[in-house]
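Mods, move this if it's the wrong board.
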Amino acid sequence: MVIKQGLWLILAVFMTAMANGQQNDRDTTRRQRVGINRDNWIAKRVTSKEFLEKVGIQGDQATKLKASMESIDKQSAKLSEDIKQAAIKQAEIAKKVLAEPGANVDEIMKIIEQIGKWRTEQAKLATQRLVVIRDNLTAEQRAKASAILMEEQKKGRETKERAAQPNRPAAPKGW
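Not the wrong board. Structure tokens:
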């Protein structure tokens, strides 16, 4: 009886860890939004009208930059969807594998390997976005773009730091 309860506890802990590691339904939307922002924030920023104007990107140059970024975004979105579907399948198989002692784990291991390959492709696409920027902007535009992005990043960090500080009055004098 104690062994059976211990096994169920281990199973519950493992399933919780897997669900957290492979996007549970409750966090999927938030994680996708964060993932998109994290993976593509540079591309979104660089192709915004305001940014293009500040850096002096226009006409064919802007069109080509946007088209290249959109192509990469489509590939990235497809990979994200594939990963999401594979994670769901992985969780379903994990329930069976963990509930049956001696169950074959080959199928779940193949899914894990595939998810890893897709994540590698996502990393390559993130780098490809930077290459597109490199190849489509002049040296002067890249320098200007870099300065703007660094300044925005600095302001963002400062805002986060201020928000993290407790909003309380200063200690009375003499304390």
